[in-house]
Amino acid sequence: MLEEQFKVRFYETDALGHVNNTVVPMWIETGRLPIFEFFGEMSPETQSLIVARLEVDYLRPIFFGSNVTVKTYVSRLGGSSFDISTEIWQKDELCAKGKTVLVYFDFSEQTSIALTDGLRSRLATLTHPEHPLDA
Q1: What residues does 98 pair with on adjacent strands?
Q2: What PANTHER family does the record point to (predicted)?
Q3: Chain-wide mean pLDDT for the chain?
Q4: Contact 62, 28 (CB under 8 A)
């Protein structure tokens, strides 16, 4: 599992004093960036990862003044896609959670491509200790 802390910045808050809903997907994206390193150099001329789906559940307000912890882990491995689950915590409370479906994609052929055994093995190292990996 990956874990990163973010400082909640004042400009990320709205008129109600809590973090705007548009900020959470950006934290989710940043939390999963290390996973892209598993795939080497990616570009529209070769293979890359594309986001097929992003879900966010907002459970509690997040406020300015305390850092958030973003926990990111692989929750499902498919043939050419995989799920990244994310938890956002503040003051030991789960405030938001998300799921991103990423697809390994060949831009030149405009089709998904199978995850190699090596990629699957590396991705499987990023599971959550309390949540088993879905196959």
Answers
A1: 56, 86
A2: 4-HYDROXYBENZOYL-COA THIOESTERASE FAMILY MEMBER, NOVEL THIOESTERASE SUPERFAMILY DOMAIN AND SAPOSIN A-TYPE DOMAIN CONTAINING PROTEIN (0610012H03RIK)
A3: 92
A4: no
